[in-house]
Design a protein that fits this description.
4 helices; single chain; 0% strand; mainly alpha; elongated
Amino acid sequence: MTQPPFGSSPYNPTPQPSSPSAPPSYSQPQSAYSPAPPPYSPTPAPYNPGPAYPGYPGAAPASAPAAPAKTKKSPILGIFGFLIVLASTAAYFLCCLGLLNNILNLLGSGALDNYIPDLNNLDMLNTEEAQVITNLSRGVLTATGAGIVGLVLSIIATATKRGRGLGIIGMILGILAPFTAIIAFNISMALYGGM
């Protein structure tokens, strides 16, 4: 195997000129810049569709179409959110008030003075007072769940602008609703006689 002559590429099979006096031929270098645009280019005339004839195919409409009117969103979501929060707040307050009154009456009656919890004897839990306390506790939990649902609906109504005013009021009431338990506790203590 022989090596190619000096100055030739082993990968290029075309022979180089053998005479060193012949100048190599180079192509014209490509310009990196595009040619400048003409100094003035006239703008084309605007398209004129011609006169409008009713019923003529391809004719332009007599007037431009009106922009779509913005539809007002229904405020029903904000109303529902507010009403659910309002009803659950009232139910929460009344259930807390009744629950605390029953617990204080049960403690004040002395019925639990000598009570020792015994899992084999659950007769104390079957009394009428225990059933009332259980039902009022369920009412507190149900009102809490409904209040959270109403709070979420109020937040959605406020964010989507569907009853924004009532949604904001429902959010504020939903945030303040748990504090009604403190008010109920104070009322129960006042009714019971300042235990």
